[in-house]
Amino acid sequence: MLSRPSDNGHTPFGDIFISESPDLTYWGRHRLVMGTIKGDESAWQSTKIGAGSVPIETDEGWLLIYHGVINTCNGFVYRMGCALLDLDEPWKVKKRTRNYILGPHELYECVGDVPNVVFPCAALTDAATGRIAIYYGCADTVTGLAFTTVDRLIEYMDERM
Asked: What is the 3-class SS of 114-137, one letter each residue?
């Protein structure tokens, strides 16, 4: 299970952890997967990050589409990025995007119950073509749908590191 534990004092707020369970009731072996990136190098994910859709198994690793948050003078802005996790040891990050892959731009992404939010919720993959349909929350009000491919996301991580 990927999660972002955030109680007072247990873990730093804003990091992605992986946990294991023998029965889906009791969880343990919590390990840090990745944390925020401070400073200007990748500011869109400097305040907090969190897992999004279920990771997609690829030949190169688990493709994770996640969200990152920056705190601006106009409030929080949620954007999407992706990372490639090791197939056998998914707590090890092989690479991740420096720049976001989708940010709030359209009116329905910028205006709503929580403005300036794109938040990945689900990703469906066609194994034959590698096409991915990403369902995402828009301003915590409506659901959007974006399309890409596994190859395109992996290439984007390579170009932007």
From this structure: CCCEEEEEEEEECCCCCEEEEEEE
Torsion of Cα atoms, 121 then 127 then 128 then 132, to 10°: 20
pLDDT in tens, the chain (161 residues): 999 876 665 555 689 999 999 999 999 999 999 999 988 889 999 999 999 999 999 999 999 999 999 999 999 999 999 999 999 999 999 999 999 999 999 999 999 999 999 999 999 999 899 999 999 999 999 999 999 999 999 999 987 55
pTM for the predicted model, two decimal places: 0.92
* Spatial CB neighbours of 29, under 8 Å, sequence gap ≥ 6: 19, 20
| 17 phi, psi to nearest 5 deg | -120, 155
Give Cα 16 distance to the centre of its chain: 9
16-20: strand order across its sheet: 2-3, 16-20, 28-34
Looking up tokens 């490639």 gives 84
Is residue 101 within 8 A of residue 80, CB to CB? The reply is: yes
Q: Which two tokens stand for residue 56?
A: 């997609």
